Amino acid sequence: MPPTSSVWLKPAAERSLARRHPWVFSGAVTRVEGSPEAGDTVLVKGADGTSLGWAAYSPASRIRARMWTFDPAETVTPSFVAARAGAAAARRSALLAGGLTDSARLVFSEADGVPGLVADRYGDTIVCQLTAVGADAWREVLADALFALPGVECVYERSDADVREREGLQARVGLMRGRAPSPTLVANEGGFRFAVEVEGGHKTGFYLDQRDARAAVAQWAPGRRVLNVFSYTGAFSVIAARAGAAAITSIDSSGPALAVAARNATLNGVDIGELVEADAFTALRGLRDRAKQYDLILLDPPKLANSEQQLDKASRAYKDLNLLAAKLLAPGGVLMTWSCSGAMTMDLFQKVVAGAALDARRELRIIGRLHQPSDHPVPLSFPEAEYLKGLILEAE
Ligand code: SAH
Question: Strand, helix or coil at 149?
Answer without folding.
Answer: coil
